[in-house]
Records
---
Amino acid sequence: MGEKVQQLKTQLQQISDLGNAMAVLGWDQEVMMPEGGSQPRARQLSTMARISHQMATSEELGDLIEGAAAEVSGADYDSDEAALLRVAKHDYEQNMKLPVDFVAKLTQITSEAQHVWAKARANDDFKSFEPMLEQIFELTRQGADFLGYTDHPYDALINQYERGMTAAEVARIFNAHKPALIELIAAIGEVEDRVSDAVLRREYDIDTQREFGLWVIEKFGFDFKRGRQDISTHPFCTNFSRNDVRITTRFYKDYLNPSLFGMMHEAGHGMYEQGSAESLDGTPLAGGTSLGVHESQSRMWENVVGRSRGFWSWAYPELRAKFPGVLDDTDVESFYKSINTVKRQFIRVEADELTYNLHIMLRFELECDLLTGAVKVSELPQVWNDRFEQFFGIRPPNDTLGVLQDVHWSAGLIGYFPTYALGNLLSMQYYNTALAAHPEIPSEVASGKFDTLLTWLNSNIHQHGRKYTSAELTQRITGGQIDPAPYVAYLQEKFTDVYGLG
Ligand code: ZN
């Protein structure tokens, strides 16, 4: 390895270390911190964001990247060195576009805003959150201008989470499967009494929920020697290294879904991080390549595996034994149907597989309109409810169940939502490719074996970290780009069966 490459690696590692230390503070904020910590924590994170940004935009780093690029020119595209240079150069150019004062200000405001939002949501009080949200959208618009775009400010934002994606492309992908979703949801609406999730809303002891969920995700392959699980209001996955991956969940004693499927979901994210190659750890190449690809992993384990008939043919007897008396009147087939209940309802994170992407489409359209000014922040509650009603045929009775439900905007995460829907689409494209290589996967899942699938994901996706962009990775795996057709076909087959549609 050349001298400049070595120096560059050292420099980048320090920036990664800072980022990971900030992630520890972020994890603590969500999992452990008392309310009083909110303001000092916002300041601490802002200070660190400033230092990190200064390092990531220093002239010295720019010179090192240039020098190292000369040393690795001609290196194999797939090599760690060539990939490191590509990613370092991209990150550097992106960071250089954002002034340090802007980054510090955004970090400070969004850290504070999350507390304001949480209170507003609890009190159904949009007005108390409105001024901060206005500031956040204003800053986001500035950020988009700093980053630069050709067609729509949204392009600059989504590019941060899903490199190369644009608003126009998202709209095309969404429009290509929206009618099929609406049609299937309507058909199910005619016979919605055929399936009910009542059995999931019985009383489930929380400690036992935890035990069962941990057992499942350990079987999936989440490595507890290199990770742990805690409780937080909003489940998430973060990591400070591939060898220290944190996932969180939440429990309700009268509703089994959030902890059970939430744990599978976060474990899917966690296994992606744990599977990133050791050689990439502590470098900018470590970890998931994009949010869409990340979500493809969580959704695959949660839905394609975790909500499959095969999985429950294996896991149901164990679940039933864990909760004596609770499931005595239910067999595996009706349990399978109940976990696949389709319901038009207000909360995105509780949405079923079929309606989920519609929730995202609503947010995507609103974000675009907020950025262009077509919708004002003060109009949001009204516009949200109107559009929600157009999409779903039901109207949120308050803002807690409407515009205040998601943490994202308070955290400055705008342009982020579409990656959830793209992840759903990718989950099926990747799964189908794995299945073509290993037709035995479903029968293995039905006997509680997950290593063939996990190994395939490891070698085709996880180990590469950020070496390939989402588009490059998808091209390598599927020979094409994001395509909603396989996901729609999967939904049609699954829910036609679950609801006995003709
Ligand atoms: Zn997720």
---
Amino acid sequence: MSKKRISVKTVFSRHLRGIRIWQKYDSQLLPSLLLSRLFSGVTPFAADWLSAPILNALAAHAEAAQVWRLVALTLGVTAALAGATAALNRWHEARMDGYWYINEKILADKHADMDFADADSQRVADMAAQIRQNTNWSGCGLLRVLQITQRLIGAFATTLCGLALSLRLFLLPVPEGSLSFLGSPLFALLLLAFMAAAAFASGRLANYAENAWLSFAADARFGNRVYSAYSWSSGERRDLDIRIYRQERITQHYMRQDNTFSESSPFAARMRGKLGLALAAPQGIGALVSGAIYLFVCLKAWAGAFPIGSATQYIGAVTGVFTGASALIVELAAMRANAAFLAENFEYLDLPNSMYQGSLTTEKRADRNYTVEFRGVSFKYPGSEAYALRDVNISFRVGSRLAVVGMNGSGKTTFIKLLCRLYDPTEGEILLNGIDIRKYRYDEYMDIFSIVFQDFSLFALPLGENVAASAQYDRARAEDCLQKAGFAERLADMPAGLDTYLYKELDKDGVEVSGGEAQKIAIARALYKDAPFIVLDEPTAALDPIAEAEIYSRFNEIAGDKTAIYISHRLSSCKFCDGIAVFDGGKIVQQGSHEELLADADGKYAELWMAQAQYYVK
Ligand code: ADP
């Protein structure tokens, strides 16, 4: 975060933008905030203001009927105000219940919307981690916008009401006598100046403490990470390791380190010294000012400027001016501090989508007649100097079976990521039916692919919804796909069939599926999408080579007229394919059928084949 001083205009415009973002996500949040803070600010004055005439009437021995009338009026108005305030506060609290999730949703929406290359990058992950860190540490960033707005509105209401109601106190003359100087405007100005100075001093002290706290944000990152790693996330899975390796010792070691949260940290040392004093001092100043206000108001009443019953009302009013003004100073400075954190939020939210968005439609062809061609495609991952793919030339037609083989790291997955346009090539082009894929509408282009990635994920939702990737779906089709994927027997065992929850996060009767079963569900999901291209990217890496070969050849049957691309570093799984592309070091070094490739005894394919043959010879 830069230490440059931010202009007042920028401070306000960033907060206004923050307010607009909240408004977009919850249109009731701000109205509820505004009204509840206004009413909460005004209500306390009403009781003071209305009860003063009662005290004065009593002191003047007024008639009972007059006192009753005043009491009824006071009770009625304060009860109505208190009721309205409570209702508004409840409304506002209910809206605020979701604010933490909205804050997360703002980040999640942006993440889902950005170019995959950015979503996938370490730089963007670090930016998001830093924003969350700011929120965890001090609520800074977008969350703070709400808190500051709340407090600013409350402080404004209190200051303005206080000023309006105390005006008469300062203007009322004091009858001739030793205390008549209390009635002079000069004295009133003096008192106001004293209060302003005190409000300013306590505001500055509070800000000093606040800034000192915030300046630890960067240092606190390590402390926070240690805590979240060792305290919050030691769930069931880690318990095993913790017990076997007695990892609590390493936990204790790091907990004792001089990190932000330990007693011996530099932060704790400052907290005991100057910082602690700065936090406590505003309370002392507040007490001094209160004393001065009491003295002034009571002496003025005693000198005969107004009846004694009005003293409470004036004390409340002047105290309101002081507390409101102090809070305003504190919040304005909090805004300045928060503006720097907001810059990090906005930098993230403003990450541009630089991927070209084409407008051609992919023509949902009934004949599924698609041809894909990679023409001179090279690719480097963003921020990487090395080519992950180099001059790849290949074309495949609809209905064919293409195998992509090669050792780990040879570029197979990268090839698929480019094919489905998660990344654009650094050089060269990929053509669909002769047209650069960048020219197609991205959402439509995505529609023609079903991919089972190696690290696919399923949701803790009902089985059928996972297969259909939708809450509303065709049950017969989902069952058919599960059956084709080899899941029929397991489905028959499921307590609630397609409605059975996977895993137990959302339903205690949910079922835990094994890795192999999950993979079948993922394949069923790919079939349900019914896209013309279907890609299996080593989803079977956890299985032994023979089981993988079985799944692949089975899949060959169920893929039907679709174009299927199989990726594997195991050659035997793919020998049934029409075409095999052998990747090595990011290049396609050989292309052909199994027999053709094997015939080249010096080729990469033959080399890999011989190395792996031992697995398949029974
Ligand atoms: P394969 O699927 O054949 O195992 P990959 O396509 O995953 O190989 O990887 C090809 C090369 O690209 C490897 O050198 C790998 O380290 C690199 N690579 C893969 N993903 C990324 C990434 N997100 N950022 C940078 N480099 C990557």
